[in-house]
Amino acid sequence: MKKTAGNISFRAKWSASRWGLVLLAVLPALLGAYFIIEVFALAGLADQVAPAAGPTDPVPTLAAWQNLLLPTLLLWLLFALFALLVTRQAYLSGRTVQRARARDFFRQLEQLTRNLPGFVYQLQRDPNGRWHYPYASEGVRKIFGVTPEEVTADAATLLGRIHPDDYHRVMEESLQSASHLEPWVGRFRMIHHDGRLLWIESRDTAQKLPDGSIIWTGYANDITEYKELEEALRTSEATFRAYVENANDIIYAVSPEGVLTYVSPNWTEILGHELAEVVNRKFDSFTYPEDLPSSYEFLRNIAVNGQKQEGYEYRIRHRNGEWRWHTANASPLFDEQGKVIAIVGITRDITERKQAEARITRMAHYDALTDLPNRSLFVEMAQHALATARRQNGKLALLFVDLDNFKPVNDQYGHAVGDLLLQQVARRLTGCLRAADQVGRISGDEFIVLLHTVDRHPDAFTAADKIRAALHQPFMIEERNLQISASIGIAVFPDHGGEIGELLRHADHAMYQAKEAGRNTARLFMPDQPPLATGERQAEG
User: Fold this and answer.
1) Treating both helix axes as pointing N-terminal to C-terminal, what angle do 351-365 and 375-391 enclose, rounded to 10 degrees?
2) CA-CA distance, 218 to 162, in Å (whole number)?
3) What angle do CA 94, 98, 99 make, to 5 degrees?
4) Model pTM greater than 0.85?
5) Do domains 116-228 and 247-355 have the same CATH topology?
6) How far is Cα 260 from Cα 276, in angstroms, rounded to an integer?
7) Residue ranges per domain, the chain?
């Protein structure tokens, strides 16, 4: 305990008065001794002077001086006795004041400790190994259900309540700290008077006394509730960790600036990177470049609005170089001032779902057999090309391609062979075109070709002749040499129509004109020549 100004003042005053009393007792002795010495000195001088003096001279004799000694001694004894009585009375008064002040101090200490949550104690171990408590504050009653008097009367009242599994550790640590005169802090279990288990935290400092005793002065507090909360937190953390480590989704924390401050261990399982490669790095290192602007917008919305965001889809790089699709949900984490300091969330791999969606989308827009755009997708692409040509005052051409003699192959060799033939036709058609041109399968054995930037009609015929030549080459399918050809109709924008639907009808019209011309040929749309009748068209397959 720190010394107070009052304590220092009291001790200074007592020290000063004590030395005053000592001087008061010693001074008479010094004066008496001095007086006796003077008496004997004068007596000696008288013996020397007497022979030389006459009989009538008044010279003191030794007897005369010695007659003065007795009253002097009595006076000195009375004075010394008086000084001793005064000194004793002053000493007793000082002790009384000291004891009164000590009682006041302990009363104040009791008042102070009564308002503390724990209790103050002094524990002493004498040279014979006997333990006792010189002091225990009132707080011991509330914590353990025992009185301070019971504790000071028998140290086992407290020491005996230390849990058996902790007792030897506590004693060894206390003695070890005492050997080095170092402060000691310990946490251990004790048994309440009613049998309840308590957790106690004790802090004390040891002091060695002259007789070999050791006294520990300290403070102890009940931390049972804290330990229960600590255990509940530990259990909660263990449970959360189990959830995180066994989750199918990645749990993450990211700063508003985009730095990944935490990722759950299953990141490695899902994306391949070691955690050390990820934590404290910006997510730019892992996010698909085209998705970065929307990713930062996602974080910015959370940080600015302070609200949860859901369903953000983006691509993230696997350690093997693949791009995986993920969807993220995230919520803001606030500080005491309400500022967003972090964003925590869950991200899930949805690559398989996105692939399935892509397959469904492709099936809706692409021919399942030839993997070429179907009619709806082809028309959509042609409309975009038509808008571009219209803005640039350019031309484009549609080629309607119908296979000659395909139906006999289908009937003779079966649909399986016919499907294989259609797949090879699709590959040859694609190989004949420029990168900007497009080809689609309309139905059955009918295909449509879109030629961009056609300057003149002969340019369309050049492409048509290239296609005819490629399709007239024999097809080797299942060791069969199959021979077909193609009839092609051509319609040019804007000469033969201003809309895709109109151009398709005219190209189809021209294709049947090519059929009428003997097949394996190409014809430009001629509005004055009627197409074949419906029945004739069906027979031409």
Assistant:
1) 80
2) 17
3) 120
4) no
5) yes
6) 11
7) 5-50+59-113, 116-228, 247-355, 366-539
CATH number of 366-539: 3.30.70.270
Cα atoms in the 13 Å half-sphere on the side-chain side of 469? 9
Cβ(446)–Cβ(504) below 8 Å:
no
* Lookup: tokens for 335: 């500080």
Q: Which of 284, 266, 270, 350 is nearest to 313 (CA)?
A: 350
Cα–Cα distance, 51 to 226 (Å, whole number) = 103
What percentage of the chain has pLDDT greater than the value 90?
63
Fold of 247-355: Beta-Lactamase (3.30.450)
- Cβ-proximal residues to 347 (8 Å cutoff; 6+ apart), any chain: 249, 250, 252, 316, 326, 327, 328, 329
Burial of 9 (0-12, 13-18, 19+ CB in 10 A): exposed
Instruction: Give the model confidence (pLDDT) of 90-127 as tens digits.
Output: 666 666 766 666 566 566 666 666 667 888 999 999 99
**Locus of tokens 């520990």:** 216
Q: What is the largest CA-CA distance in the chain?
A: 197
Dist. CA 355–CA 348, nearest whole Å:
15
Token pair recorded at residue 301: 């919305």
Q: Which long-range contacts (CB under 8 A, 24 or more apart) does 72-76 make?
A: 72/32, 72/35, 72/36, 72/39, 73/32, 73/36, 76/28, 76/29, 76/31, 76/32, 76/35
DSSP reduced 3-state for 62: helix
Q: What is the pLDDT of residue 89?
A: 66
When pLDDT is averaged across residues 381-392 and rounded to a whole number, the result is 94
CA distance 246 to 238: 12
Q: Where are the beta strands (DSSP E) in 169-229?
A: 184-191, 197-208, 214-222
- The H-or-E segment that residue 401 falls in is strand 396-404
User: CATH assignment of 116-228?
Assistant: 3.30.450.20
Q: Is 233 exposed, middle or buried (0-12, 13-18, 19+ CB in 10 A)?
A: exposed
